[in-house]
User: Fold this.
Amino acid sequence: MSMGDVLKDEDEERGLDALPRLYRPVMWALCMALVLFQLYTAGFGQLPPLSQRAVHVGFGLAIVFLGFVRFYGTSGGGYKFARIIDIIFAVLAVATTVYILTQEARITESFILTVRPVELVFGSILTVILLVAAWRTTGPALPVLAIVMLLYTMFGQYIPGTWGHPGFDFVYLIEHLYLGTEGIWGTVTGLSANLIAIFIIFGAFLMATGAAQTFMDMALIAAGRFPGGAAKVATVSSALFGMLNGAAVANVASTGAFTIPAMKRLGYKSKFAGAVEATASSGGQITPPIMGAGAFVMAELLSVPYLDIVYAAIIPAFLFYACVWMSIDVEARRENMRSFDEKDIPTKEEVLAPGRIGPLVITLGVLLTSMFSGNTPTLAAFYAICTNVGLYLLIGLFGGNDLKERFAKLQKAVVSAAFGITGILALLVTAQVALSLIGLTGSGIKLSETIVNIGDGQIFIGVVLSMLVALVLGMGMPTTAAYLLAAAVAAPALITLGIDPLIAHFVVFYSALLSALTPPVCTAVFTAAVIAKTDWWSVSIVSIRLALMKYVMPLFFVFRPAVLLEAGTVEIVWSLVMGLIASMLMAIGGGRFYRQRISLPVAIFLVAVGAVVAANQWWLDVAAILVLATVVITQRRAVWLDRKAQTE
Assistant:
């Protein structure tokens, strides 16, 4: 079976074909309206913030309730009742967001706002709708967290001691969430409406116009012949695509829909297939040259050029993917995973043909040139989309291809983009609700101060505790929101300890990213588990094992700043070499295998030795080299002796 066959055989769980025939025109109109709205505002100027976000949320929630049918099937006794409830929810979502549009001037211009009874009702309804939508699209973890924060906000006055607060009544809570600019309509919702949505659209059109297959084929050429070829192909393709969209969940949702079924069809376990995709996709935000919104925010907070962030991120991204690659190789050899047959791997001449690779290269060139010319990422993505679609249609017009078929693929891209946006929108807006309540009650700052003060001036303890702060704050939230909050409370503490601001912010940034893979609220894992049709906990455990280097990297930043290019050439090269050795030790220990199985105590020891390489002590470096050499030599010798004994 070729990769192309794997892609074509994908079993979609959502889309217009799964809907009753009567709903399809309505859903098509909603999808088209949402995508056109995002494209227009990206290219020709966004609406005022409240209007931009209200339209985005209104369209998105309507599509969630009318289009996501996999939760109760398409038949059965409860189906009609469920559809009626969905229609009511969709209508209420539109009504509550349209009301915001009509009241924007009053909300944004009034110094003192009197909450009207209808606003209490609408605000309560929209909050409930968001929780239901998030539950449907990502599971219960994030909605439960939001509900806990709602209860804590309303009843915190009954909690004694530091964690108590004066309390907020119901009217003020709804005013904060529904009529304020920090509640439902806050920064994270703005990122979804302004930046993330347009990059999801960009990814959907790239998929429809053949870029996905090109990425896959390039990954096949690079990795298809190795042990565990399908998993390595997924890693390479997710890294390539992750550089474009910079969002772990979006990357899993897009590339994972192809790579996870491919791995499963080749016999890989569901939990491993989901973990590979979740782990590889979580690297998009750290992979230059496009690192998502978080890197742009970091550049702004540090008042440094964006390219400085890009250069600093090169070695850490390389070491992360090196560890993932080595971990997959260990798993592949241990489980005898299949690689692709030679006949299934395309030739370089096929993939690099000008008519095929040219449009992709031009599209990416337009994107990068526009970004590095000073345009916003949103406008750059708009130009890239126009370039991609224009070239796709021109090649069809002058290349003798069927234009009707190409338009049909673009129509599917519109639906795919809309579902991609709405599948993440509910998550982001619900995360915004939780984030706003954390800020309102001061619980985030209390948590950060409590943890950081325990460090008592010790750099190592301060770094570890700051990592925990960023990880906890990042759970269930998009990277940028988690990074912003953690940077506000943890980065200053690190800087006070004498750590360079760039290093401090990279520590916080990477630590916030870990939440995509770390239980209990690991959004990238949730998405991958749904596609892999397995439980999310097992996917998360394997993901952590594959991404061990990512968990250690913040310590490298502090004690081996050469990995951020904060040193001379010799030290940079040596740190890169030691980073690769640490990656290999953790891959072997995590997989408990090199050429033969390794006992659990030895595996734990190998992981520990790999981790302490971050300490930047010469004797620990020498010890790590000797340990790795011992494992390699003894295991290879043992295998050689076994083979010799079998032949005699």
Remarks:
- The radius of gyration is 25 Å.
- The chain has 31 helices and no strands.
- Confidence is low (pLDDT under 50) at residues 1-14, 70-74.
